[in-house]
Amino acid sequence: MRTQVGIIGAGPAGLLLSRLLTLQGIDNVVLENRSREYVEARIRAGILEQHTVDTLTEVGLGDRLHREGLEHHGIYLQHPGTRHKLDFPELCGRTVWVYGQTEVTKDLIKAQLDGGPPLLFEVSDVIPEDVDSDSPRIRFTDADGNPQVLECDAVAGTDGFHGPSRAVVQQGPTGRTWERTYPYAWLGILADAAPATDELIYAWHPEGFALYSMRSPKVSRLYLQVDPSEKIEDWSDDRIWDNLATRFALDGWELTTGTVTEKSILPMRSFVSAPMRRGRLFLAGDAGHIVPPTGAKGLNLAVADVTLLAQALVRLLQEKQNDLVDSYSDRALARVWRCTHFSWFMTSMLHRSGDDFDAEMQLSQLRRVCSSEAAARELAENYTGLPIE
Ligand code: FAD
Ligand code: DHB
Q1: Centroid of ligand 2 to alpha carbon of 213 (angstroms)
Q2: Among the options 12, 51, 72, 76, which is catalytic?
Q3: What is the distance in A from the centroid of ligand 1 to the CA of 334?
Q4: Which residues contact 295 (CB under 8 A, 6 or more apart)?
Q5: How confident is the model at residue 106, as a pLDDT?
Q6: What pLDDT score does 389 carry?
Q7: What are the residue ranges in the chain where pLDDT is below 50?
Q8: What is each CA distance from 127 to 7, 18, 19, 23, 157, in whole angstroms?
Q9: Residues enclosing ligand 1, CB less than 6 A?
């Protein structure tokens, strides 16, 4: 098999890259080790920045997003006794959208299977080879168990945090990583409960952080800070609702409860791998970096990476110019570090460490963001997404 760009991984990064390249006339093949059902059911992020919405719209995937997605004009920041709204259009002229990553993925897969380039599910033993040459290849075993070789001009490693691509880049001469693990985890639930808020609520509380998000006018998505050693079996639905009610408590406001349809515990870490390129292998999305979810950046960063990568690959393969592939890693990493800082800032400001000095620092920072237009604007600009340079 031969193609121009071999793409490893059918998460949002790989699928969107495939779409961007296809629209520019570049052949590509996407290889995914899970089944379509598994990929479409994975519940993850929910907030799309303005540039993500614009990109999805430009590639013809904005219809359902605009019909079923919910445009949000701000967030609430809460600490006991106070719930303060940051008004994004007023502060920075942008908005964000609530539209689940599951829905983005379903839209991308549907478009791809409807006349798009090949998307092979349930492949195994995927490994990029000869990436320092101009004709790299991907070896893999197809869903029927047959060994295959995909010859390419370039390979995109969009295989998430646990895929094989990052290790190949790291084995290059300048590979380096940075990591921070946080002593916090999130217990996330999806519930058939009408959201009791118009905007997301990020709540600081002495017992730990809580986040009120949603997926539709009938479905809420809620998170609780828990210790990373906690087991989901120890959290009954009643215990979860009680903790949520305590942490979001505000005079005159009431939490709406409902049937919990999904619950899980997510670890939190920051991780950056540089460079994001070795020869003709390019990393994008979670394959190159992880952020803690508090800034809602993971999915949006994946979209920003592949926007840059698609431009660079089109220039390389159609105009035979190396300039954009040569600058890809530095340009992508500049945004990665900005989002890494913002995600660390939001995580540090909102999670209870157990230390009372930390708590006073956090409350002081929260009061600052809620009272200074400059501090609020800084948060709003980062949250809604800086323009892609
Ligand atoms: P992924 O979505 O991970 O896609 C990578 C794809 O590669 C997957 O389909 C995987 O199956 C495939 N793959 C892996 N190995 C191979 C292989 N060997 N061969 C072929 N294919 C392979 N972000 C937020 O902003 N808010 C959240 O609440 C949030 N929750 C999250 C919860 C979880 C459990 C996780 C893991 C992430 C969460 N994120 C969240 C982050 C966000 O979902 C990711 O940043 C986003 O999915 C990145 O997209 P991606 O395409 O780069 O990677
Ligand atoms: C959601 C997840 C986040 O990490 C976040 O900061 C906001 C919303 C969500 O899943 O809806």
Answers
A1: 6
A2: 72
A3: 21
A4: 339, 342, 343, 345, 346, 347, 382, 383
A5: 97
A6: 76
A7: none
A8: 11, 19, 22, 27, 10
A9: 8-14, 31-34, 39, 44-45, 101, 126, 158-160, 162-164, 266, 285-286, 293, 296-299, 302
